[in-house]
Specification:
Helix content: over 70%
Number of strands: 0
Structural class: mainly alpha
Number of helices: 4
Distance between the termini: 69 Å
Order of helices and strands: HHHH
């Protein structure tokens, strides 16, 4: 009788035991965050990029960086402006999903 009770208990608990098990369930493909958290994170990324871009532009104007590097940075800045436009368009349309890879690309450009 004890074995059958254990089997019933396991049968009842089994779905709950598997609910959080990564071996059985598929990991989520998306992670949701509040819109305001995204806006805050993106604002930080823009400030970081803007600070670095301004410093590099000043150094190029002063001749402290080679012309080839300044040309590369100008190209990076054009990419950043296009990304910013795309991200701003997403922010202006609340029902659309934010393209996180684009945000990460802006951070990469800032670090590049």
């Amino acid at each position: 009788m004890k074995r059958s009770n254990n089997a019933i208990v396991m049968a009842l608990l089994f779905p709950f035991l598997l609910d959080g098990c990564a071996l059985v369930t598929k990991p989520a493909t998306t992670i949701s965050i509040e819109r305001q958290q995204f806006v805050n994170a993106y604002a930080r990324a823009r400030i970081l990029y803007g600070t670095v871009a301004e410093r590099m532009t000043r150094m190029c104007a002063q001749g402290r960086i080679e012309r080839e590097e300044c040309a590369r940075m100008a190209s990076v800045h054009e990419q950043a402006k296009r990304l910013d436009t795309e991200i701003q368009a997403k922010l202006d349309t609340p029902e659309s999903e934010v393209d996180w890879p684009r945000v990460m690309k802006l951070l990469e450009l800032a670090l590049d």
